[in-house]
Amino acid sequence: MRGVVLGVAVVAAACGPTAFVPPPPSPQRVYRMSEVDERPEIVLTPPLRYPAGGRDGVVVVRVVIDSAGNPEPASAVVVQGSDSTLIAAARTLVMQTLFRPGRVRGRVVQALIEVPVEFSAASVPSVTLHIAGDVYRETEVQERPQLTSGPPLTYPAPLLLSRISGRVVVEAVIDTSGRVEDGTMRVIESSDARFNQAAKDYVRAARFRPARIAGRAVRVRLDMPIEFKLPTRN
Question: What average pLDDT does the segment 73-86 reach?
Answer without folding.
Answer: 94
